[in-house]
Design goal:
The chain is an alpha/beta fold. The protein contains 15 helices and 20 strands. The strands form five sheets. Strands 16-15-20-19-17-18 form a six-stranded mixed sheet. A five-stranded mixed sheet has the order 3-14-11-12-13. A five-stranded parallel sheet has the order 7-6-5-8-9, sandwiched between helices. α2 links the parallel β5 and β6. It is globular, with a radius of gyration of 22 Å. The two termini are 21 Å apart.
């Protein structure tokens, strides 16, 4: 990629954007993302009241706060449709709830609370095990309808209620629905925005209040609009798209803003790929990510929920802080280099980075389609991996898919068979695994200062265990390609 300088332009009070300029001060022909100028303000009507156009996120806030009109910056009490917590935050939330509402208090709605053990499950750490005991006791005490328990940690399959990673389980179990408000005590709760709903992570204190009242005070976020057009190249995945966007606007570029994704490319993405896109908006500082619900959304939900829902869509003249237009046909496979998700680099330009291991898993890269993508590349190569390659399904359903779903074009082989033939480690118990480090005995935790390429979402120092470890974030395609060579590798080397 040619060296270029940058010029910043500011529209109104919105964020700056960058357009590549060549050394000769001529516009580069390889503009990969650019912000369009804002349209002029709509003139007010001469008679009667004027209704301001609203974005999807603003409309969802208006419904949930029982208001007809809202604008960014307003603080409103909203009614929560679904609240989620898990084993590492649940005990703190429960403590706040009991302290503020009393030991005998009841949650506002036992059918709108979802409690999912998923982070530190398969460990002998006593405090981690105690956390699961605390949320189990509370769920039994409150008669929580959706508590996905695990009692036999020696064999997750012996626990039919156990699901795995909360963000994927929420979708698979029908808790994600268009037009609703979903809050959870995990920053990647924003994953559910793929369903056309407002979903965001909250702290334990707010969560304790939600448990008791079903309400939360939120500021209406302004919206950044991302228009992605063009046919998706067969060597790219949604992970490449979001790494490009984060690299473009930085890890603080969307601070307390909604990130709305539209365009012909988005319309062709599956639900799991849309989830990947929304999952990492928090890595750009976003309050929430959101994709308009469409036929793909409705089809996914057909057999997952009987709860009625009402999708909302942005008005044609809704106000946005900024709009970014991206031609995906011009993008290449990317990585985020240590130690920040916005430290963007082309996979092909990192080919000299030697790896010690590859990790495929997490809420970002541990879904069924993520593993199908990795298996597809491994199958195309016919080679064996050159570094330890860890396979950690997000949920029990994903684990089952790895052993039952045939990989397209494989002659009936499953992901697990292809992984075994390629020399990968056997698929492990479904959980958050080593994505957030965890106790020392966590499967695939980085206990040494190694170099890892991972399909996870963060690469800060110590994120996956050792504080001197180096983590490269990438798509499942790039992860599989890199496992085969032992170096960061562009997946086109095997797919084409």
């Amino acid at each position: 990629m040619a060296t270029s300088s940058f010029i910043s332009t500011r529209l109104s009070s919105g964020p700056s954007f960058q357009t590549p300029i060549s050394k000769k001060n001529k516009l580069s022909t390889k503009i990969m993302a650019v912000m369009t100028p804002q349209t002029s303000d709509r003139k007010p009507s001469t008679t009667g009241s004027v209704k301001t156009r609203m974005t999807m996120t603003e409309k969802i806030f208006a419904r949930a706060s029982e208001r007809t009109q809202l604008s960014p910056g307003e603080n409103v009490w909203v009614n929560v449709d679904v609240f989620m917590t898990h084993d590492i935050c649940g005990p703190g939330v429960i403590g706040v709830f009991k302290r503020e509402f009393g030991d005998d208090a009841k949650v506002w709605d036992r059918e709108k609370v979802v409690i999912i053990p998923d982070h530190y499950i398969f460990t002998s750490d006593e405090r981690a095990n105690r956390n699961v005991d605390i949320i189990r006791d509370f769920s039994n005490e409150q008669n929580i309808k959706y508590f996905y328990d695990i009692t036999d940690r020696g064999d997750f399959k012996a626990n039919p209620d156990y699901k795995g990673v909360c963000h994927i389980a929420l979708a698979q179990e029908g808790h994600c629905r268009p037009g609703e408000i979903l809050v959870g005590t995990d920053s990647h709760t924003c994953t559910a925005g793929a369903f056309g709903q407002f979903a965001t992570g909250i702290g334990n204190t707010d969560a304790g209040f939600v448990l008791g009242t079903g309400k939360i005070l939120l500021k209406v976020p302004p919206t950044l609009r991302f228009v992605l057009d063009g046919e998706m190249p067969d060597y790219l995945l949604a992970k490449d798209l979001i790494l490009h966007i984060i690299g473009e606007i930085s890890v603080s570029g969307a601070t307390y803003k909604a990130m709305e994704f539209v365009g012909t490319t988005i319309e062709t993405l599956s639900m799991e790929e849309r989830m990947t896109l929304c999952n990492m908006v928090i890595e750009a500082g976003g309050k929430n990510g959101i994709v308009p619900a469409d036929a793909t959304t409705f089809k996914y939900l057909e057999d997952k929920t009987s709860v009625s829902y009402e999708p909302v869509y942005s008005d044609a003249q809704a106000g946005y802080v900024a709009e970014y237009r991206i031609d995906v046909t011009k993008l290449e496979p990317l990585v985020a280099k240590p130690h920040s998700p916005d430290n963007r680099g082309l996979a092909r330009e990192c080919k000299d980075v030697k790896l010690d291991r590859v990790y495929i898993g997490s809420c970002t890269g541990g879904k069924t389609e993520d593993f199908l993508a990795a298996a597809k590349l491994l199958l195309a190569s016919g080679d064996k991996v050159k570094v330890p390659t860890y396979i950690v399904p997000a949920t029990q359903k994903v684990w089952m898919d790895l052993y039952t779903l045939p990989v397209p074009g494989s002659g009936g082989k499953t992901c697990s068979q292809i992984f075994e033939q390629a020399g990968c480690n056997s698929p492990n118990s479904p959980s958050c695994g080593a994505c957030m480090g965890g106790p020392l005995d966590t499967y695939a935790r980085m206990n040494e200062p190694q170099v890892c390429l991972s399909t996870t979402n963060r690469n800060f120092p110590g994120r996956m265990g050792h504080k001197e470890g180096q983590i490269y974030l990438a798509s499942p395609y790039t992860a599989a390609a890199s496992a085969l060579t032992g170096f960061v590798t562009d997946p086109r080397d095997f797919l084409h």
